[in-house]
Amino acid sequence: MSDPKKWIGVAVGALLVIGLAFVVGRVTAPDGEAAHAHGQGQGGEQTWTCSMHPQVRRSEPGSCPICGMDLIPVTDDAPGPNEVVLSERAAALAEVRTSPVRRLRATGATLRLLGRVGYDESTHQTVTAWVGGRLDRLHVRTTGERVRRGQVVASVYSPEVYAAEQDLITAKRQLTRLAGASEIARSAATASLEAARQRLRLLGIPDREIEQVEGRTSPRRQVAVRSPFGGTVIERLATEGTYVQTGAPLYRLADLTRLWVLLDAFEPDLPHLAVGQTVELEVEALPGETLEGRVAFVDPVIDPRRRTAQVRIEISDPERRLRPGTFVEAVVRGDPESSAQPLVVPASAPLFTGQRSVVYVEVPGAARPTYQARTVRLGARVGDVFPVVTGLEEGERVVTQGAFALDADLQIRGGHSMMARPDDSTPPAPRLEVDDAFLAGLRPVVEGYVALGRALAEDDLAAATAAARATSEAARAFDPDAPAPAATHWDALGPRVRREAERVAAADSLQAARAPFEPLGAAVASAVESFGNPLEVPLRLAHCPMAFDNRGARWLQTGEAVDNAYFGAAMRTCGSVEATVEPGERLDLEQVAP
Amino acid sequence: MTPSPWQRLFRFLVDAKLVVFVLAVLLVVEGVRAAPFDALAFDWLEQDPVAVDAIPDVGENQQIVFTEWPGRSPRDVEDQITYPLTASLMGIPGVRTVRSSSAFGFSTLYVIFEDDVDFYWSRSRVLEKLASLPDDLLPDGVSPTLGPDATGLGQVFWYTLEGRDPDGELAGGWDLDELRAIQDFTVRYALSSVEGVSEVSSVGGFVREYQVDVDPDDLRAQGVTLQQVADAVRMSNLDVGARTMEINRVEYVVRGLGLVASLEDLEEVVVAERDHAPIRLRDVAHVHYGPALRRGGLDDAGAEVVGGIVVARFGANPRAVIEGVRAKIAEISAGMPRRTLEDGTVSQVTIRPFYDRAELVDETVDTLSTALWQQILITLIVVLVMLRSVRSSLLITAILPLGVLFALLVMKAVGVDANIMALGGIAIAIGTMVDMGVVLTENVVQHLEAADPDASRARVVADAAAEVAPAIVTSVLTTVVSFLPVFALTRAEARLFTPLAYTKTFAMLGALVLALGLLPALSHLVLRRRGVRVPGWSDLPERTRGALRFALLAGLVVGTAVLLADDWAPLGPEPGVIGNALFVLVTVALVLGAFLGFEQIYPTLLRTFLRFKAPFLAVPLALLVLGALAWSSLGREYMPPFDEGAYLYMPSTMPHASVGEAQQLVSEMDAAIAAIPEVDRVVGKWGRADSALDPAPVSMIETIITYHPEYGVDEDGHRVRQWRDHIRSPRDIWDEIEAAAQRPGLTGAPMLMPIATRIVMLQSGMRAPMGVEIQGPDLETLERFGRDVEAALRDVPEVRAETVFADRVVGKPYLHVEIDRTAIAHHGLHIADVQRVLGVALGGPPLTTTVEGRERFAVRVRYMREERDSVEALRRVMVPTPNGEVPLEQLATLEYARGPQMIKSQDTFLTSYVIFDRRPDVAEVETVEAARAHLAALVESGELEVPAGVTYRFAGTYEAQVRSEARLWRLVPIALSLVLLLLYLTFRRLSTTLMIYAGVAVAVAGAFILLWLYGQPWFLDFSIAGTSMRALLSVGTVNLSVAAWVGVIALIGIATDDGVVIATYLKSAFAGGPAKDVAEVRAKVLEAGMRRVRPCLMTTATTLLALLPVITSQGRGADVMIPMALPVVGGMTIALITLFVVPVLYCWVEELRSKRHPLEEIPT
Question: In this structure, are residues A581 and A533 in contact, taking their beta carbons and an 8 Å threshold?
Fold first, then answer.
């Protein structure tokens, strides 16, 4: 009887033990995992950096070489929202390449213009008939033929010349016949010969020819018209067989070794153009060759039909390879008067996000390849580079290849990539015209806020809550009626100010008061952006990079020295003033470096 | 005595054997024809197998409406197409919800219908609605089209086109645009013609088009406008038919030929005429072949390729479709284009598949058919050993294959597809099916032995059958009823699990029909009564006969064991057939030995327990408590992961990635993954295929990775391990892939396999099994809140931080050309004038399409690349005005903006998702609950601000788990009470019924305890002959999924049967009236228990051992089957206690009752 009982006891006992083990196993299992997870987080080399100057990287603790602040350890697992830290392998995979920001002689913007080759108007010449008569023959029949100076270009039957030559020949013969005649008769004959000569001379026949004519027995039926200058016939103005007056134009000639290139410049191009600029010309007829010229003239009038102004380039083409009418593509480089040397980055570096662009900058001296996203302002593209307006310093290395991969990586990790720059996500506050009454109404709000900031900096909770209440009251009391856009804007801003101020007022600790102080500051700053500084003294926008666990935060204050509202006595002077807003002026966050 | 209806039925069946046998033969022939197993495919028998797929099509009942609006931004598409379309389609009857996405150039609407709406009916409703849209609803020239009659799950066959030499070696020599043209105009149409193919979509390579790159400088120089060029091109491509002409009684057909067929044709097009000098297209433009704008591409291990995707029609039999496709490929492959390369090799374009669902289907079916075959063999062994009768064992076992064929036949008739779930249903029914045969045959044998030698043998057999028939019918009924909750599941889980419930029911019904219909007739033929003289046999001495009988029995057992060992090889191939056979025999001997030993000590134990009821009952109570503890500690998930042998790695890059960037990322990533030795092929797709089923943006990457199976066969035919030593499971391969694929700018991806991914996408619209669905008033808010949630979820320990990813809703940079209305007014221009120039100069719409035989290519006119590929160039685009032309910068300002890459919405509400994945050791539901709690805490504390108008909820397959669990919680009690009613009708006593339930409860507790044990690292941690038992029995964490619940439900059925049998015997023991005293009660209970212990043990043994092949199976689909089998195994092991629980409780009640009626006690 006792046996079965014992067995049952053992069985029940065993089951209870199993059950206990089961429960214990369940309770302890997750702890083991947690310990394991902790173990993985350790290891690796520690790097130290300055919270104000993240580019400083040291392998041991110390103080910042720039500002002297104590360095803080870098946690590789949590790089800043602007930073991408890659392993060596990942950097190799991403094929990241960098190049330094450097100075380059400014060449200004590059313009591409289109135009055509034209004649040099100053070389235009006209060959005229020096004698009237019938045009028997035109020796140069087509346009485009080249004519030497003195070349016979036409033969003219001129009754006048004929008669004059006839007279000359007759007078000559008379003189010969009177060889033995009286002096009087001879002198009369000589005089008439001389008169005949003179007539021919006046008609324009050179003496040499007159002498030849004297030797002939009959006058010439035709006289030659010679070109007084060399050039290319660009127009034939007469036809054979017609009678022309003396001085009638026969040909128009132009010198094609000196040409004009006429470029069409649209209105936006004109500011970039000035006389004297070098221009590179490309002509389809001369593939692969670039001619050079200089801007000689910019038309002061815009052609109302073409909506362009003509830009004239004078070039000489002794080999006569250019033909008028040819299309020319011209590249105009640089502002001639500029001699500055701006910083430039390669054109492949920036990721465009509008007015600003994002450039990835290599953080020097980091344990692992680290790149920082930097918002920069760039000028207009010049060739392969962009001039940097703000945001980069000489010698910093920017990523020229692989920037997209870095950006995508940053975005995946929720950082501030090109598609999520924090300062771009809120639209800039509108700048609104307000009158003095409006500013007067706004003043107590800003004053209350500034007092609140001062109280927080002094670690005075009572004063802070009082100031917050005053701010809230002021915001409630301020009810502007005109003008409409400003009133509407304040209707949106006012409740924000009130809500945050009331949260500060309700705080029971300094820490609780400081949390809503930041959004309150943002609302007030927005008001200063839109309406201007309503105070009699300058407002200063300060920034502390260490507030809220190194996230960084801004506030407005009136004093010149940093008066840190987020830390109070602990670190009252930490931070820097980023902008100063004079009374009545508007805060421009665009100008504040991000 | 008039025979009962049962008796009459069985007498008829025994007499009319011919009818029975003919029907049986018909069943076998038709069943074999319907069987999808290769082993049953005979050449002389025309096959007509049931439709086969790997897992059931669980996609939502949906129709896709796809609308293209080339070149338009997602915002335009959303506002002008998606929103109005959604609003009008929501009104269609039966529509549950409309999901949509608007992307660059196209809009996709998923119209999701209620489950009971017919697929083709819903198609015609959608078409009807589309046809009757008001004219002004959509922009001009935009026409929505109905997507293919398929879902993403229909993507059953992916291939690439490659140039190969006659030896099948890669030869190359084909350009990507040539291959694409061959794919688009030859292969695609050929494969589309295969029965059951819904569409074949092309992906990768370059679509060739005629590109007229206009030089704007030339335009200005020649004094023509872009519009003139466009018009000229448009008017240059036309054929006309001019009817016929009769000349001398001969009829000629007149054609005016004018279609563009070459680049020269286009170059000669006259744009304008000046002084009789034509300005031809070539004077102002460069005409060439070029690639069309790409929004997707394909990459094979680092090289760009052209490929195609075959999509099977909704409801088609995927295996049949693939077989058709394979046959078609074989047919066309000889005629594919070929060319001789410079080095003399002949390169022919070859179709090379890289994802073939049929392989998976075959492997899955193979796993299950193997398991079924092994189950039958092992059952035969068990029955042989337990009954020690060759004849009855063969009879009983014959039921199994016939029952399986019956189930297949019914599946075919009813239209239930064969898949892992359906065949799994048959697998877990095997144990119960055997029981019916055992019960019937045993009874017949007993009756024959006890029968009067003069009685008609047929009559005895029929009466014996009639005696147990009601009990058998009741047990089948209870099993079927207990499965009712599974039938009542809804939506996806219904599609997933009802096939299983159906097939299990079919198999049970089959077994019932066969046991009742065929077995009596067969027994009459086969079984003999004792003492009948058989000439020759009966003359032998008794000892010789005994020895011969034993030899025959032993031979059969060993033979079956060898057969089984050869097929099963539980210890792996190394020990050889003999070793494996020994293992099988030893296992069976151990289990059966233990059972026989149990049978021996059962009376003693029962007697003891009857005396010490309360201490004994503490044991089942403790088990119940343990079971409840185990239950609460189990992880919960929807569906155990199904190893498909292929991964779908779906990282994405950021939406602002360009085509080139995406393509480069994919090719680098593929090359890195291809370097992993376990990986067979890697084909990555970025962007989308040309199909309405694939609306992926450029930044989305899908990589199909197939890996070598763990074991392969070398040249000598030996099985060798193909994985490196440290790779133990597919999960390890996944880790390798993840490590290799990682690179800056690419997200991680949840572990997914192709089919599972499609299912997830179809169910939730996400591309991960878990996620947060956020709805909000505008895109910016969605984006901001999504990022907040992303950051918050990264801190949840159960979540793998690298997989958390919020949709970058406004992640695409836009370049806005803002036209200054004042400026254009100065020049006398309309907005449309400027837009037209922009559209043509930059966008380059197709103006006309060439017709070159079968091939069609678009002709596009646009600015030269240099004139449109930079912001500076954009500013200089010339806009013609009534007086000359002006550059664009004088008329418009260029602004950057952030905008959406894709706008998703649900029922017109803007939606975005934050997806995440769990850590491998945490179950789905736990992860989601932890994440939910974390978010709620953050919202509570104010750290996470939910903007006005934003709602969020957790979505994904986990929803199905929660929904089905809730439903099961409601339905299982209903089913149990139905079973209760059935039992009550049988026993007419509530107490008995409750006792049976007590046994069932203990069994269920056992199921949970075994599931818990499987998750413990120390459980079964030992080896036999070098084979780890943990590996052999697939020990590993099993979460409480719907699959496990199905196993539990199956267990309830079996355990109920067991209890019913004992209770029946107990009831009959007390049939003579209540016992007089406690001693008599105990004696009666003991007697009943002893009579029943053997059949019960046999049931348990067959069920347990029959499931062994399932549990040890390693093939495809095993991971879904095992969670279903485990509860049954655990429950049946514990069910040995039920053998005591029910009698002890019964005894208790009877004792109470005997004490309550002391009067009847007195006469002794």
Answer: yes
CB contact under 8 A, B745 and A404: yes
CA distance A18 to chain B (A): 9
- Spatial contact of B53 and B642, defined as CB atoms under 8 Å apart: no
Verify whether the Cβ–Cβ distance A114 to B221 is below 8 Å. yes
Number of H helices, E strands in chain B: 36, 34
Residue B365: both structure tokens together: 């079916």
**How is domain A4-39+75-103+342-412 classified at the CATH fold level?**
2.40.420
One-letter-per-residue 3-state SS of B715-771? CCCCEEECCCCCCCCHHHHHHHHHHHHCCCCECCCCCCCHHHHHHHHHHHCCCCCEE
CB < 8 Å from B in window 60-119 of A:
84, 86, 90-91, 93-94, 112, 114
Residues 6+ apart with CB under 8 A from B135: none
Between chains, do A408 and B886 touch, taking CB under 8 Å as contact?
Answer: no
Name the architecture of domain A123-251.
Beta Barrel (2.40)
ipTM of the complex: 0.73
Chain A nearest CA to B711, separation (Å): 33
Superfamily of domain A110-120+255-333 in the CATH hierarchy: Efflux pump adaptor protein, beta barrel domain (2.40.30.170)
Q: Are B404 and B598 in contact (CB under 8 A)?
A: no
DSSP 3-state of B926? helix
pLDDT at A208: 85
Helix (H) or strand (E) holding B270: strand B270-274
Q: Which one-letter amino acid corresponds to residue A517?
A: F
CA angle B610-B615-B619, nearest 5°? 100
Q: Scanning every residue of chain B, which has its alpha carbon at the shortest distance from the alpha carbon of A403? A: B745
A417 neighbourhood in chain B, CB within 8 Å: 654
CB under 8 Å to A325, separation ≥6 — which residues? A116, A117, A118
* Nearest-angstrom CA–CA distance, B705 and B685: 11
pLDDT per residue as tens digits for the range B212-257? 998 888 888 888 888 889 899 999 888 888 889 899 999 999 988 8
> What are the pLDDT digits (tens) for A254-276?
888 888 888 888 887 887 788 88
A415 DSSP 8-state letter = -
CA distance B178 to chain A (A): 32
Locate the domains of chain A by residue range: 4-39+75-103+342-412, 110-120+255-333, 123-251, 436-591
Residues in chain B closer than 8 A to A411 (CB atoms): 654, 808, 811
pLDDT digits (tens, 9 = 90+) for A84-117: 887 777 777 777 888 888 887 655 567 778 888 8
Chain B residues inside the 8 Å CB shell of A37: 797
Helix, coil or strand: residue B202: strand
Measured between beta carbons, which residues in chain A are less than 8 angstroms from residue B812? Answer: 419
Contact A352 B813 (CB under 8 A): yes
A16 touches chain B (CB under 8 A): yes
Q: Which residues of chain B fall below pLDDT 70?
A: 1, 529-538, 570, 572-575, 713, 716-719, 764, 1024-1027, 1072-1075, 1156-1164
Residue contacts between A and B (CB atoms, under 8 Å): 136
Nearest to B619 among A15, A23, A268 (CB): A15
β-strand partners of B902:
B103
DSSP character string of A18-30: HHHHHHHHHHHHH
* Cis, bond preceding B49 (omega within 30 deg of 0): no
What are the residues facing B750 on neighbouring strands? Answer: none
Say whether A406 and B744 touch across the interface (CB within 8 A). Answer: yes
Q: Is the dihedral of CA B264, B265, B266, B269 positive or negative?
A: positive
Q: Which of A 380-399 lie inside 8 A of B, CB atoms?
A: 381
